[in-house]
Amino acid sequence: MLRSFRRWICPDLAVDLGTANTLIAVQGRGIVLNEPSVVVLARGSRKVLGRGSAVGKLARQMLGRTPDSITAVRPLQDGVITDFELCESMLRYFLRKASQSRGGFRPRLVIAVPGSITPVEKRAVFNSAERAGAGEVYLIPESFAAAIGAGLPISEPLASMVCDIGGGTTDAAVFSLGDAVASRSIRIAGDEMDDAIVEYLKQNFALKIGLPTAEQLKLEIGSVAPLDQELTAEVRGRDTASGVPRKAIITSEEIREALREPLGAILNCLKQVIEQCDPELVADLVDNGVVLSGGGALLRGLDQFLSEQLNVPVRVDSQPLTTVARGASICLDHLVEWRDSLEGVHDAA
Question: What is the pLDDT of residue 2?
Answer without folding.
Answer: 41
